[in-house]
Amino acid sequence: DVTPLGDNGVKAGFTGALSKHCVGHGLLLLNTSIYETMRFIPPLTVSAQEIDIGVEKFEKAFKETLKDYNV
Fold first, then answer.
1. CB within 10 Å: which end of the chain, N or C, has fewer?
2. CA-CA distance, 23 to 25, in Å (whole number)?
3. CB atoms < 10 A from the CB of 17, how many?
4. In the chain, where do the E strands start and end?
């Protein structure tokens, strides 16, 4: 089964899957509608510790998504 690559070389649907894995870890992110891109939009009052926690959650979700896509 061949999945087409987007303009940036990422398989179509990757960021949608990544977003779902992020939700599973309690992290809400937005993916763009036509590009395989994720949006990080933290509140202005976010602390350094909260950023670290978010990055850890994103890393876990990213690794799970890579595994799903056999990368």
1. N
2. 5
3. 17
4. 30-31, 38-39
